[in-house]
Amino acid sequence: MLSKEKIARINELSKKSKGIGLSNEEAKEQSRLRREYLETFRSSMKNTIENVRVIDPNGEDVTPKKIRDIQDKNNLN
Predict the structure, then answer these.
(1) Contact at 8 Å (CB) between 16 and 22?
(2) What is the dihedral of CA 45, 16, 18, 20, to 10 degrees?
(3) So what's the pLDDT on residue 76?
(4) According to the UniProt record, where is the region Disordered (predicted)?
(5) DSSP assignment, residue 54?
(6) Which helix H or strand E contains 45, and what residues bound it?
């Protein structure tokens, strides 16, 4: 999870870029922070998807085979 300070800085740089623009250093910082944010988001989303169980209205597990295979590989069953 990205810290609140880093998220605030991303938003600050975004607002500044739309207004007066960014210096080269600020643009590099913004790029680095965005990349870090996306890596964190993707990792979190992957973890969520790999740990989900899909249950139909009849109570049967209908989790896709690909996800079940990953769960079996990671001993999550």
Answers:
(1) yes
(2) -160
(3) 60
(4) 57-77
(5) -
(6) helix 24-50
